[in-house]
Amino acid sequence: MNWFITPRELRRLGIVGMNARNVDMIARLNARRHYPLVDDKLLTKSLALEAGIAVPELYGVIETNHDARRLRERISGRDDFVIKPAHGSGGNGILVITGRMGERFRKANGLLEDMEGLEHHVSNILSGMYSLGGQPDKAMIEYRVRFDALFAKVSFQGVPDIRTVVYQGYPVMAMARLPTRGSDGKANLHQGAVGVGIDITKGVTGHGVWHNEIVERHPDTGAPIGGIVIPEWDRLLALAAGCHELTGLGYLGVDVVLDRDYGPLILELNARPGLAVQLANGDGLRKRIDRIDAVRPEKPALPSERAVHAQTLLGVTGSAPSGRI
Question: What pTM, to 2 d.p., does this model score?
Answer without folding.
Answer: 0.88
